[in-house]
Amino acid sequence: MDATFINLMRDPAGVPFFPVVFQGLYILTWALHAAFVLLALGALGLSLYGSTKQKTDSNWKIFNPHLIMTGKISVSMLILLGIAPLLFTQVIYDSGWYVANTLSGAFVFIFVYALIAGYMMYYWYSSANKKSNGGTLIGLISFVILVFCGILMHNFAVESISPDKWQEWYAPNGVIDNSGLNFHIDIIRLAFMVSLTIPVVGIFMQNYSDFLSTRKDFSSEYLTFVKNLGTKLAVVGLLISAVLFVVWMLQVGLLFHPVVLATIVSVVILLLLAMRNKNSYVTTGILVVVALFISGVRELIRYNIMSGLGYDLYGYPMNLEWETIIMFLLTFVILGFTGIAFILTMAWKIGKREGVFDASKDVAVTRLANVTLAIFVIWIVVYFAWGMVALFKNTL
Amino acid sequence: MEMLGLYPVFYFPNYGSAWLMGLTGTIHIMASHTSVGAGLLFAFLAHKAYKEDRPELYDYMKRYGMFLLIFSYVIGSITGPGIWYTATAASPRGISALIHNFVWVWATEWVFFIYEVIGVFALIYFIDKVDRKTHLKLTYTFAIASVGTLALIIGIISFMMWPGNDAYYNTGSASDAFFGVNTFPHMFLRIGFMIMMSGIIGMIISSSMKKENLSLSKELTQKMGIVSLLGGFLTLLSFMWYIMTLPVNAHAILGITLDSIIMNRIILSILFSVYFGIAIFKPQWISRTLAITMMFVIGIAGVWPGEKLRESMRKPYVAGQYIYSNNIISRDVPGKGIKNEVPLLAANGYLKMDPWVPTRLRTITPENKLEVGKMLVTRACSNCHSLEKYGSYRPMMGLVGKIAQDEAGIKSYIKNVIGTGSSPYMPKIALPDEEYDAMAAWIATQAK
Ligand code: HEM
């Protein structure tokens, strides 16, 4: 096994931009995907416990519906945020991604429908919980299905970084298997990923409590309850994750790599901050840093494996493509940031008060709304103008 | 020797892997088109509610929105990447070609998509939490964002059919590939359908509001009828325009099936015109059951055949008319430095050029001949045909049975028809003679 085999599968069209940019974007966006995966599973998992307490415990009665809602929105977010790394990984590591997808083709299909089923069941759970404070069983099934989806994702990730096994997996003992039923997991790595759900939901609970502390319709006793429970989960969860992380790093032989050491330091800082429980927004900031580091470590592992075989990522043939990257950058930075700022500012201000929020009297929100609308209109105009010019140039 | 950048073959028994993609695609179209249509409809309703001060319309939007969240966004946002995933499993090099041409377009669409999904939660959950004017602005941006996602994907899927002109092959530019002659007709075809779908779904909601508010329910059903009718009209007009912008090879397949398609479209048009007519003139006759049934009718009788047709018309290519469905590159694309692989394969054969052939099968022996034959047929044909005799997806053994009875006849067909590129809808699969022998031998054992 060497890189000629991998290089063969590189797309003959080449990459449309510098590979390092895709690599950076991959690390960034996967960290976001992971953050919401962890929050979704953590919130859903914890809400299952909550739904058994909810009938008798007044704190859980308030908290559980919020937990369920958080998980529900997070699943949408994780899907959304999964799309970006899905794009970038197959630009620069196309060989690995496509081999994993064909070796496990049947699981690809199962993944899609399992995710639909799991998410639909989640909505069912959510409405059952609203009606009767129950639905635990439905929620549990949904949880199991969504965890299964995560295991399948992990399976694809493991396959895509095992080039030396590809041929054996495709044709065990020289007999080809087209069934797409390959399934391979790396238990330590998986356990580590799953364990992170606990601290993430814990830190979320600290945030939740801080956020609502300005509202009069939530008692401080309730908020303290949520916060303390969150702290406990965060601390215990982080300890478990830290141990698993070290074992995983030993397994891949990277424990003393600078990026890994930096990750460990940032985890320790996170642990201290979560324990001190002073300003949870700062804690979340560090959590984001940790997520980026973990994403970086994943990429480091893959990069080492691939370049160890002689795969020259940065030497991927390139056909520079200016028009579309400019479109992306402008859209991402101008439209994306303004638009999301508009909705999030509005959401933040709505969440901070009871009753109707008159945003038309709020200068910041109104300005954001108007600017967003204007940017969208301009975008559409530019799109059609560009299309017309391209068409006329090529057909007349 | 330099080999070809092929991937493992995933084959789903009886249906073939491409069929899985069609199924996911159909579901996705229903969901995603409804959500874009609903984006436009919401802008219209919110505008009306605001200008005419009609708070009851917000209740309708809220109900519609909850339905949408579950139906369109859950299903739509999963089947979107889902098509992509299943398409990857079926045609890795086809998807790879799209990704490597259009990654930034997709990334741009992703920005819109994020806005759309965060927006839909805000739109629904903030209806009575924020003032109406700001809500109206949100609805407008949401509508444009929804159309934006279509505007961005449409050039990519139109490119799958064909680039629309030769410029792309020389420049390799994504912009030339994106805006072909097919792009805009295709876009309006879909916008028409989206508007119609938003009305069809809207009737499900409005017809189930009869108990609480009969006159509102009637008024809304009526409006949805008008919306659907207009959408349907736009769909039909654009469909004709769309057909005129298709490439030559598409007409080959279209020619085979054109009569039945036209029949299907005429029946559907009449049926749905009557349905929309009832909604407009006798809105109380529309019940929820009827409305739901009609949604399934449009899905099963309209979208599913439409998707299968679009897939067929693209044959023998999977993307850009430079890459065949069986993952072989069929022409030079100087703009990207891409080389035609057909002659290479003809000279050396799969056994030498496919990196995934196990060593023991690289040379044909009397013992492994059938196994090699099966491997080659799976590699070369299974993307478009199911291999079982009674398979459901263009069953190859059945088709072969109509043409040749014995091994020699089969070989001569593959070699002289497919091997020379004489079939308008099949790739040119030119191979060394011994590989044809092995394929024919295996097919003969299966077709019996
Ligand atoms: C409930 C649903 C999902 C769960 C629980 C989940 C979980 C995960 C996990 C645990 C990993 C890391 C695997 C590893 O490194 O061992 C991962 C990676 C990934 N996920 Fe998801 N995911 C889900 C849905 C999605 C969806 C819908 C998409 C695409 C739209 C997606 C895209 C990705 C990508 C691209 C990677 C990186 C793969 C790689 O490059 O190695 N995920 N996901």
UniProtKB/TrEMBL annotation, chain A:
Q: Does the keyword Glycoprotein apply?
A: no
Asked if the Swiss-Prot or TrEMBL record annotates the protein with the keyword NAD, the reply is no
Record field: transmembrane: 25-52, 73-93, 105-125, 137-157, 187-208, 229-249, 255-274, 281-305, 325-348, 368-392
The superkingdom listed in its UniProt entry is: Bacteria
Keyword tags: Membrane, Transmembrane, Transmembrane helix
| Name of protein | Uncharacterized protein
TrEMBL record, chain B:
Q: Name one GO molecular function term.
A: heme binding
Q: Which InterPro entries match?
A: Cyt_c-like_dom, Cyt_c-like_dom_sf
The reply to whether Transport figures as a keyword in the UniProt entry is no
Q: Which UniProt keywords are present, listed alphabetically?
A: Heme, Iron, Membrane, Metal-binding, Transmembrane, Transmembrane helix
PROSITE patterns per the UniProt record, alphabetical: CYTC
| UniProt organism field | Sulfurovum sp. enrichment culture clone C5
Against Gene3D superfamilies, the record matches this protein to: Cytochrome c-like domain
Where is the Cytochrome c domain positioned along the sequence? 368-447
> Would you tell me the protein name for this molecule?
Putative Cytochrome c
Q: Could you list the residue ranges that cross the membrane?
A: 20-45, 66-84, 104-126, 138-162, 187-205, 226-244, 250-278, 285-304
Q: Which Pfam families match?
A: Cytochrome_CBB3 (PF13442)
Does the record's keyword annotation contain Heme? yes
